[in-house]
Amino acid sequence: MIKHIFIWLLILSFWDLNSQNNNVLNTTKPNIVIIYLDDLGYGDLSSYGATEINTPNIDLLANEGLRFTNGYATSATCTPSRYGLLTGIYPWRNKKARILPGTAPLLISTKQQTLPKMLKQQGYQTAIIGKWHLGLGDGTTNWNEHISPGPNEVGFDYSYILAATQDRVPTVYIKDGKVEGLDKNDPIYVDYDKNFEGEPTGKDNPELINMKWHHGHNNSIVNGIPRIGFVKGGNSAKWIDTDIADNFLSQAQNYVKTHKENPFFLYYAMNQPHVPRTPNERFVGKSGMGPRGDAILEADWCIGEFMKTLKKEGVLEHTLIIFSSDNGPVLNDGYYDEAVEKLGKHTPAGKLRGGKYSLFEAGTRVPFMTYWKGVINPGISDAIVCQIDLLASLAALTETQENSTDSNNLLDVFLGKSQKGRDDLIIEASGKTALRHGDWLMIPPYKGQSYKENVGIELGISEDFQLYNLKEDIIQQHNLAKEQPLKLKECIAIYQDLRGKNIVELK
């Protein structure tokens, strides 16, 4: 009898030890999901103070996870931010890191370290589902053949993407380098310089469009929407705009279901609320703010459904979720869609000044939260963090060596164990840069327009130095450059050290 009891105790002890080991494994190598929205502003979520729109599913991540008040994208536009996110490198170090056309070659070198490559070294399965916009191929892409290099060549085992943006051609899904649903008897051709003979455009054939263009979006018409760039053929492969969100959600859910047995990294790059805003009919009119508000509600619903899948598949407690946006908000960004007219009391940038394209805070300060059920305690962090810091931080989490020049290991900050974030950060907008130093923002003098007329956004450009104390003046109304010469001198020295000795000059 005693012998049997001893054996059972031994079995239970072994089981308990094994359970503890599994918990350690699940803690050090959790599934990692980055949910990345497009043009979502600091004030676009109810968890960040919005009162005219309710985003309960995203709010769950914020309220039951860690919500950052000083979370930054690297850039005020999409391509550079995505470059920084995946490489851990400031986009201004790469002169080609600008908003890319749909035919641009791959921006990330296949020899570079990337977030998915780094995680693959630790046995992770890796996938991107959603918007790419980092270039494909070598610049002479044949869309009817296998397209390479692309996401698969920079670390993603699986990729299901739209090449650039919803408003740019080609308007097709690309799965692991091949256009999905393409009929070889109806090949697809893409050009960003000239139209194909006989193909209608938004500029010349307004009778064929159902979404009126405002600026820049007057080339090929797909599904009644004029786009940027010209396309011919490939009709069987063209997406239905109102189904994009559902399609990407289904792909993300299926990926979880089929890859849950081993650690996975999923970059779920949603396209809302970028133009053209085409929410599914289930969401049309629900926000009262037109298609932009409806698209935000659609994104919130998608995230709720995705969270349900994580829970149903039994992986929610073993999944670190990082939520953010690629840059700040913009209302009229190429189409007349009532984003301005139906805005009402909603403030997409919250209390911040500027927006997409701007060096002011609303250009790069974005919603940013981390959620890991049972590991990250609910809270609010004022620490300065940036998306480029995910590479070094996730390397630390998975005990991986990485050699990024710009990414900081802020793992304890992202897990809520520390409030000590970055001291300094270079932010960027359209090739121009500025410095966030503690509570201060310093913008060097630049020549050029100070206001982007067609979108109605202040760019933060001045021929004088600008210096703001963000703790006391979050709306950036008081330029203290002349009143605080010693602080300005300090910021210039830090900026020159980080950005380059000869960079502070009128450009």
Give structural notes.
α5 packs parallel to α6 (290-312). This protein is of the alpha/beta class and 507 residues long. It has ten helices and 20 strands. It is globular and about 65 Å long. It starts with a helix and ends in an 8-residue tail after the last helix. The strands form five sheets. A ten-stranded mixed beta sheet has the order 6-5-4-3-11-1-12-13-2-14. A four-stranded antiparallel beta sheet has the order 15-16-17-20, with helices on one face. The chain has a two-stranded antiparallel ribbon with strand order 7-10. The protein has three domains: 30-178 and 240-418, 3-Layer(aba) Sandwich (Alkaline Phosphatase, subunit A); 189-232, no CATH class; 426-499, Arylsulfatase, C-terminal domain.
List keywords for this structure.
507 residues; alpha/beta; Alkaline Phosphatase, subunit A; 10-stranded mixed sheet; 4-stranded antiparallel sheet; 10 helices; globular
